[in-house]
Amino acid sequence: SYNAAIVACARGGRWEAAFHLFRAMPHVSAEPDVITFNSMLSTCERVRLWEEAIALLRGMPGEATVPDLVSFGTDISAREG
Asked: 58-71: per-residue pLDDT in tens?
């Protein structure tokens, strides 16, 4: 699944690949869910991409995905860097 691949890329230090997979999802009719977004937020936290984290969090409602406590907590951690 895309979620597993995104997590694997992030854990392996391949954050660019994680972003590539995330951005490719709409092109293959794969819809990101809260787990996908939380994985991406965690990726942003690891590499201190707080501006990307903010953009992801703001984009969740547009994807019909409701942020949860993990989403907000990870976003805050990414901003603290």
From this structure: 888 776 787 777 77
Which distant-in-sequence residues (6+ apart) come within 8 Å of 51 by Cβ? Answer: none
Record the tokens describing residue 81, joined without a space. Answer: 């860097």
Q: What does the alpha-carbon distance between residue 60 and residue 9 come to, in Å, rounded to a whole number?
A: 21
Count other C-beta atoms under 10 Å from residue 15's C-beta. Answer: 18
Task: Determine the Cα–Cα distance for residues 9 and 54; give it in Å rounded to an integer.
Answer: 20
Q: Would you say residue 32 has pLDDT above 70?
A: yes
CA-CA-CA-CA dihedral for 72, 42, 60, 71, to nearest 10:
-20
CA–CA separation, 23 vs 26, rounded Å?
Answer: 7
